[in-house]
């Protein structure tokens, strides 16, 4: 096992979750062929097939199942060791790196203020993460936790407090037929192309951003999505606070009836959980409970 590469192990773990070479590549930010190369290298080290591939499906072999069972806790322990070493290196007083998409909403900023007020040594660094990559920064360790739009169905990520339930607003060009309306309904969305999120966001998350029957262009950042809407390339679903904070003279914002509200959640990596992250999650949940009671 000399020269074992962590990237090969990471590739196997992601592929075991996705059972799809293309989706695994999107999560790892590599091509599908690179996923195949990494898996082949690992199988050569092991000396046997770990994954069965056919034209219709991908599945773990019995040895692959056994290997996954042994590898997952060991890989998790490695992540935890790195997180612990990082905390020790910072003397336990380093900032909590908190990711957010597009806009740091008022409920989030209130929780940050309350969290820092509990201990003068605490601080929070706010880091914007790409609209089209809600989970990548957490997986790479670029942030300790992140606030993202639901849904989240990732086995390696913990979904913490859910908050900021908001009505949707439709952003359209001022030249669009909907621009002069006081509201639109779910049936109206089926008649316009909706701007969605680009990869590497998983398909189910992308589908939630553009639930209409007509797919529109895909955007990587929120500003890119707004620009596409302003140019008349499609309509963009936004929660009301985001629409309010991104007013533009070339975009009309129209309330939407009949679609599920948007919700945010705090997420973090299951294998890199720290007490600091758990404490911030408690603070955020307390703040949300206080708003609901008020």
UniProtKB/TrEMBL annotation:
Highest taxon of the lineage: Bacteria
KW DNA-binding (keyword) present: yes
Gene3D superfamilies: Periplasmic binding protein-like II (3.40.190.10), Winged helix-like DNA-binding domain superfamily/Winged helix DNA-binding domain (1.10.10.10)
Family indicated by similarity: Belongs to the LysR transcriptional regulatory family.
Domain HTH lysR-type: 4-61
Family annotation (InterPro entries): LysR_HTH_N, LysR_subst-bd, WH-like_DNA-bd_sf, WH_DNA-bd_sf
Protein name: LysR family transcriptional regulator
Keywords: DNA-binding, Transcription, Transcription regulation
Native source species: Streptomyces eurythermus
């Amino acid at each position: 096992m000399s020269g074992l590469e962590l990237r090969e192990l990471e590739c196997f773990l992601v592929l075991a979750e996705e059972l799809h070479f293309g989706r695994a590549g999107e999560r790892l930010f590599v091509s599908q062929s690179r996923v195949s190369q990494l898996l082949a290298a690992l199988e050569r080290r092991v000396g046997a097939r770990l994954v069965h591939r056919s034209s219709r499906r991908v599945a773990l072999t019995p040895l692959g199942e056994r290997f996954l069972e042994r590898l997952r806790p060991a890989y998790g322990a490695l992540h935890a060791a790195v997180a612990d070493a990082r905390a020790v290196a910072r003397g336990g007083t380093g900032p909590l790196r908190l990711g957010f998409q597009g806009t740091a909403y008022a409920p989030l900023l209130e929780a940050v203020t309350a969290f820092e007020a509990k201990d003068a040594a605490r601080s929070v660094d706010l880091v914007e993460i790409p609209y089209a990559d809600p989970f990548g920064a957490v997986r790479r360790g670029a942030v300790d936790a992140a606030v993202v739009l639901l849904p989240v169905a990732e086995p390696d990520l913990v979904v913490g407090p859910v908050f900021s339930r908001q009505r949707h607003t439709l952003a359209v060009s001022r030249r669009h037929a909907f621009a002069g309306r006081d509201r639109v309904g779910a049936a109206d969305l089926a008649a316009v192309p909706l701007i969605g999120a680009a990869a590497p966001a998983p398909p189910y998350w992308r589908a939630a951003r553009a639930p209409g029957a007509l797919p529109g262009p895909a955007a990587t950042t929120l500003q890119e999505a707004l620009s596409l809407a302003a140019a008349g390339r499609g309509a963009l679903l936004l929660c009301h606070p985001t629409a309010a904070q991104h007013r533009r003279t070339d975009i009309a914002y129209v309330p939407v009836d009949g679609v599920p509200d948007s919700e945010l959640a705090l997420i973090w990596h299951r294998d890199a959980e720290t007490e600091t992250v758990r404490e911030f999650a408690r603070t955020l949940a307390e703040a949300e409970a206080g708003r609901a009671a008020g």
